[in-house]
Specification:
By secondary structure, this protein is of the alpha+beta class. The chain has a single domain (4-236), classed as 2,3-Dihydroxybiphenyl 1,2-Dioxygenase, domain 1 (Roll), CATH 3.10.180.10. 20% of the residues lie in helices and 31% in strands. The radius of gyration is 17 Å and the shape is globular. The two termini are 12 Å apart. The relative contact order is 0.18. The model has no long low-confidence stretch (mean pLDDT 95).
Length: 240
């Protein structure tokens, strides 16, 4: 059976601080039992979790993966902006114009994210974490649709999107690159076979779909580090 999406891995120089910020931004539950790896669990119980992992490297470029947060009204969008700025966010300019209705911010470590306008029809009805938004051509969306066995819910204008078959949780979307990838992504997807599945069999299936195994210095670990057809890192965990 195909893998399921378990978590978004999130590199952090200070996992505790960054996790607290995102717990407030999303209204999720914070599990801070390990100072070097802290998990946020969705308030509605649907995957994925977010796992903040300590790394020494500083953020270098605009992230090719970011979060889009939904808002319920214009007042909610403005109030969310003010609250997140007070928590340590900063406004950033990534080329948006005055005509754009979304608000672009960066978290305390400079990771970009968007507060989406309530008029956005595509994300209507989505949870607070409305989309895990990625750079990538359509073939990357096709790969992930097959990797997770999630249906394509959008496929036009060089943009693709998938969502869990039961219609819960965030969308995962891909669109034209905004920058050239030069470093390991600070956000990546963690996937796993079901409890009765086999990690190696899934790795081989993903390779057949266009992924490849890579070495990022992970050493002897239980998970397998891979890259999708556009070079974005992801991890295949043990069955669960």
């Amino acid at each position: 059976m195909p893998c399921h999406l378990v978590a978004v891995g999130f590199d952090a120089n200070d996992p505790a601080r960054l996790a607290r910020f995102w717990a407030e931004a999303l209204g999720w539950t914070l599990d801070d039992t390990d100072a070097d790896e802290i998990t946020l669990r969705p308030s509605d119980g649907t995957p994925p979790e977010i796992v903040f992992q300590r790394v020494p490297e500083q953020k270098a470029d605009q992230n090719p993966i970011h979060f889009d947060l939904t808002t319920a009204s214009l007042d909610d969008q403005r109030d969310s902006e003010a609250r997140l700025l007070a928590l340590g966010a900063q406004p950033v300019d990534i080329g948006q114009t005055a005509a754009d209705l979304h608000i672009v911010l960066a978290d305390p470590e400079g990771n970009e994210f968007c507060l989406i306008e309530p008029q956005n029809r595509f994300l209507a009805g989505a949870p607070r974490l409305g989309s895990i938004t990625c750079n990538g051509p359509p073939r990357v969306g096709y790969f992930w649709s097959a990797a997770l066995d999630w249906p394509l819910v959008w496929d036009q204008d060089d943009e693709t999107a998938i969502r869990a078959p039961d219609g819960t949780g965030p969308f995962v979307t891909w669109g034209p690159p905004v920058s050239h990838k030069t470093h390991k992504n600070r956000l990546h997807l963690d996937i796993a076979p079901p409890a009765d599945g086999h990690q190696q069999a899934e790795v081989e299936r993903l390779i057949a779909l266009g992924a490849r195994r890579i070495d990022i210095g992970q050493g002897d670990v239980t998970w397998v580090v891979m890259a999708d057809p556009d070079g974005n890192e992801f991890c295949v965990l043990t069955p669960r």
